[in-house]
């Protein structure tokens, strides 16, 4: 019966089956959706018919019948040849699968090995039959590509291996030279790439097949570009990898350099090239001399060339190198001897050279348009490129001392004979020399200089007598570089030589001076052309630039010398002049001095501070302070504006700030009063300059304040007293004005550091504590007056002074709480709030936002100073101000208000915390005038719960449970996406951040709320609100991860939510009518737009939720098993997905299905085969069963990936 089916299939359906399997005309979208599954099914059915057990056991090989009768060059289209590798692969797989039925079973290891040998023999026979069939179709591209695929299948099947010499012999009979013959002819790139891939695969299968042909392969690859043919580099990698593992690097190097030496006179090259310049360019940029291959050669020589092989390998390389130089030298001398009137052809010159030296290669008597000298120059240049790589890479450290001495002597002897003459050939060329001869001499000189540079870079060979400018005739180097006829590679090598010579300390100092003088000139970030300034800017951003030790030392020396004018100035004297506002000063810097200082500190600002020695840091820190003061005095005493003076001070302050954590200003200016007066000198100039100046100054002040506070803890309180006195003076009434930004920011930072560093006043002694109390008394008196003046104004303006006054007044309350002062104090928060609301109705709210934020922070701080019986009234004021300022009037910044609220919530008493939460619940239950206000209440509840005080667990539990009951109202779960998202954010934060506050009574309402958000709706938003889906997924995921004990009792609810999440990912088909589209849209949530459904990112979120119950993850985390219990409910969830696939009205996008795949595989794992069979029988129709089978097949394919 099976033979009848096979015969019928081959006669009737095989041609159509082959055409369908090879089809590529279907649209990509179709192939991604249904086409791939259908094509796979049809292919598998055909294979099952062709290679059934009965057909494999028959006397006639089914593959031979198939190849001989159905793949005939005159009848079979070449587009169907790609099915041959697929059939061969299936044949090998089916033979292995049914090996015991086909070859018999064995009960001993020897019989098993016999079966494995029969499998290999059958596989190799099938391979040869398939290969011969393909070769009968000629040399078209389709044939080559099919041969590549066939060999890749052979490699993947691992048929050719150890103990299979007969199979190797079969492969050696392949016409490999036919593939190599295509290498030098890249006229058909795709065919050439296929030939290279064939050689790559053969090198993997059995290297001995192509090892005897190594020289021919190198000859073919020499002009092939690895960028155009990636397989060329892969082939070279395989060849070098084999020789590295077998420790035969000398043989590889010898073959490589021998090929390069004879390349210019080979038949292939002579036939193809007529110009030496093009020949040299193609060879130099080819695969053999490409950067990637040469780097691999260098690593192989360093790591795999043994100490015993090194002398012999070097000797062989030097012999070929000397031969290439002798060849060029003989041709050069012969050309110089020719009379000007004598016309000697290139062939005659070659013959003359051959008579002089019998070891010269024979050149065929054919018409060669290139001269012998040019060919010899190309040969020398190619060999020199390898020599420049190999010699510095030799493993000198592993050689014994006698071997190392002999090796150095050999290299020196060979090199000294070539060095001087080869380097001078280009400089000694006669003016009447032809262009080709001049080019030949230049590439010889460039190659020689390249070797010089390589040897000079190698520590073990640096002491050799390498090339220097003294060898080159004086003045000719610069002329050669400027000459239009000089080749680019010679120019590069000449510049390399000059750079090596000028790397003396004197020249490095000159270079450092250039960097300093040019570094601060203005230039665009993206110039239209390259410039020194732009190059210097890019270099200074590179770590490699600062890793150069000699250049770095030269730069530091130059910087030290350029800032010497700030060394001899008395800093204390300058500070006194500023403190007493003295007008009699002799300090006055010229414009050049200011520009030089700007260059110094701009370069220091770019330099990583770790590269600056510790002693230099201290020196430059003091000079920066002196320069800042000197420039300030110069600006204020000069009648003419000092150009870039303000910007230079900004640069200095920025550098001082960047290094202030290792060097403090108080180490240079011991008196804090002088320090505060100096640092709080106001800046002027452009707005961006002033902004950076103020930020850097505040950072400097912060480090100084922290050092003073920490010293006061250790009873070194003199500085604390002086600092408090200075701060008190700096913000006095007569000092306040438009330029009080720095003093006030300094005061605020001091209070913040004091409160954070010293939690209790018991850590301070009486003297510094008294100084702080004096500062508070002065602040309270001055600011009370300022606040009364502020309230006396008719309305708030957008002036920054009002905001500054409220900010400092709030800091006064912080200081009062820290000191524990019980005296009464005026509370202006409520009055300010009332006035702000009035002003906000008349002005632009954006201009009052900062002031509104400070007033809200003041209200929070005033809570700690009101009487206990007034706490509830004040808390109600805080809550109402939060809602008004953020939702209704938009007069405050939400992020800043939340930050202040979190700090205040941690210090609330349990009574106050309970009252605030009850107030919020009451507002939610009664409802407010707008959803925006409800959103603010929910957000406020979220902030309070996230920073609940200690001992408030029960209170937060009750508040959360009552809020869940309130959120069941329709207003919170339908219609307003922002409000619903805020509700979900609140629930998610509790589930993820405070899971201990969740009880079993809370889990049911959570599932109910999520289900309501996912239920269908007749109305939909214009745009899909994907954050809602992400919030639902993360909320359910947090419950599953952190409260599995509670989730186990509500698994049906979890399954229902998962079903709804999968349903929310569906998309109505585009060709539906209005009624059909409405039927689908009514099943989608209200926040999903049918025109813009959720995408792959949302599908990935659902997949992560599904994988949270994965068995392996639970085992790794040691969590309570949930996958087993959920397996009873996984079927309906899987049914929702399969139902969506089979629904004629909806579609799941391929990208969505791909994103869901990990979660679906986790569901399959939980269901098991029993759950799958139950779902197939009772819950799916015919289309659903087909879809589930396909999904299950994909699940089983990936199940054991990566498990050995």
The strand order across the widest sheet is 1-2
Q: Supply Rg.
A: 43 Å
Question: Count of helical segments?
Answer: 57
Total number of beta strands: 2
What portion of the residues fall into strands of 2 or more residues? under 5%
Q: Percent of residues in helical segments?
A: 55-70%
Question: Tell me about the biggest sheet?
Answer: 2 strands, antiparallel
Global structural class: mainly alpha
Poorly predicted runs = 25-31, 338-368, 1114-1119
Distance between the termini: 40 Å
Nearest-integer average pLDDT: 81
Shape: flat
Protein name: Nucleolar 27S pre-rRNA processing Urb2/Npa2 C-terminal domain-containing protein
Pfam families: Urb2
How is this structure best described in words?
It contains 57 helices and two strands. The chain has 1204 residues and is mostly helical. Among the domains are: 1-174, no CATH class; 317-501, no CATH class; 533-760, no CATH class; 998-1204, no CATH class. It has a two-stranded antiparallel ribbon. The longest helix has 29 residues, at 1150-1178. The two termini are 40 Å apart. The model is unreliable at 25-31, 338-368 and 1114-1119 (pLDDT under 50).
Question: How would the blueprint of this fold be written?
Answer:
Blueprint: H1 2-21, H2 28-50, H3 53-57, H4 62-70, H5 83-97, H6 99-103, H7 109-135, H8 141-157, H9 165-172, H10 176-180, H11 189-205, H12 214-221, H13 230-245, H14 249-262, H15 267-272, H16 276-284, H17 291-304, H18 310-337, H19 346-356, H20 372-393, H21 401-424, H22 435-457, H23 476-482, H24 488-501, H25 505-518, H26 532-540, H27 543-546, H28 549-562, H29 571-579, H30 591-606, H31 614-637, H32 645-658, H33 672-679, H34 687-713, H35 718-730, H36 741-757, H37 766-792, H38 800-819, H39 829-842, H40 849-862, H41 871-888, H42 894-906, H43 910-926, H44 931-946, H45 953-966, H46 970-973, H47 977-993, H48 1000-1014, H49 1026-1042, H50 1044-1047, H51 1051-1063, E1 1067-1068, H52 1074-1081, H53 1096-1107, H54 1111-1117, H55 1123-1142, E2 1146-1147, H56 1150-1178, H57 1182-1199
Antiparallel strand pairs: 1-2
Helix pairs in contact: 1-2, 4-7, 5-7, 5-8, 7-8, 8-11, 11-13, 12-14, 13-17, 14-18, 14-20, 16-20, 17-20, 18-19, 18-20, 18-21, 20-22, 21-22, 22-24, 25-28, 29-31, 29-33, 30-32, 31-32, 32-34, 33-35, 34-35, 34-36, 35-37, 36-38, 37-38, 38-40, 39-40, 40-41, 40-42, 41-43, 41-44, 42-44, 43-44, 43-45, ...
